[in-house]
Design a protein that fits this description.
By secondary structure, this protein is α/β, with parallel strands linked by helices. It has twelve helices and eight strands. The chain has a single domain, classed as Rossmann fold, CATH 3.40.50.300. Helix 7 links the parallel strand 6 and strand 7. The two termini are 24 Å apart.
């Protein structure tokens, strides 16, 4: 099982859109996915139409009051499960900050999921801030997956997330965490700027940048207001095709390396 934190401290880059639609597309590909909404605003939760499940959040598991398994809810999509979020998580952030092991609360909460291997991927939808919840996500994750909007300040945001990852490593909270992937979002083929930004990010970060690019489309913006993924709302549209392609690339990149290949290398 792999734990992937979908994180960017900058808001409005398509982070929650990616968490929800990548999770749905992976589930469609046969993967068993748990999407954990770590943002007290609960946007991933409402994007799946599950905002009415009050109290079924990570609040109690993070404080050690109950097991995370009791908070994992099935969605209407086969093989996609959700741990919802609501404003209670903002209170949890304050309480966790007072604990001596405050950076490791989520890692310990997720340990039973690693042990039973019932899921293929856990996707952590992080809040757009560098607070306790995001720090916990980085400390618990195997990798960071960072959506970046195709705009002028994209590299500036990437530099900041790289520094945060380095700080988590140096703190000893998670010495193995790395940036596993960078996803370019809101790509507008009508402008030169989008292509220039993609080229510049790829020049600096090489194969960390996914080949799949998510286009700017009104349908992706509309889908959450209906409590639907893009795969449900506009099944054959450009956004759905892009997230299916992303899921396929994500699976390829995480495929186990055959033993014979390892011995050759």
């Amino acid at each position: 099982m792999k734990i992937t934190a979908i994180a960017n401290q900058k808001g409005g880059v398509g982070k929650t859109t990616t968490a929800v639609n990548l999770g749905a597309a992976l589930a469609e590909q046969g993967q068993r996915i748990v999407l954990i909404d770590l943002d007290p605003q609960g946007n991933a939760t409402s994007s799946l139409g599950m905002q009415d499940f009050e109290g079924e959040t990570l609040y109690e598991p993070l404080l050690g009051q109950t097991a995370i398994a009791t908070k994992i809810l099935p969605t209407r999509l086969e093989r996609l499960f959700l741990v919802p979020a609501d404003l209670d998580l903002a209170g949890a952030e304050v309480e966790i900050a007072r604990m001596p092991d405050h950076l490791l609360r989520l890692a310990r909460t997720l340990q039973p999921l690693r042990a039973d291997s019932a899921f293929d991927f856990v996707l952590l939808d992080c809040p757009p801030s560098l607070g306790i919840l995001m720090s916990n996500a980085l400390a618990a994750a195997d990798e960071i997956f960072t959506p970046i909007q195709c705009e002028y300040f994209a590299l500036e945001g990437l530099v900041k997330i790289v520094r945060v990852v380095e700080q988590v490593r140096d703190s000893g909270a998670n010495s193995n965490v790395e940036i596993g992937g960078i996803l370019m979002t809101m790509f507008d083929s009508r402008t030169n700027l989008s292509s220039q930004v993609v080229a510049e990010v790829r020049q600096h970060f090489g194969d960390k940048v996914y080949a799949t690019v998510i286009p700017r489309t009104v349908r992706l913006s509309e889908a959450p207001s209906f409590g639907k993924t893009i795969l449900e709302y506009d099944r054959c549209g450009a956004g759905a095709r892009a997230y299916r392609a992303l899921a396929e690339e994500f699976i390829r990149r995480h495929a186990p390396v055959p033993a014979s290949a390892e011995s050759i290398s």
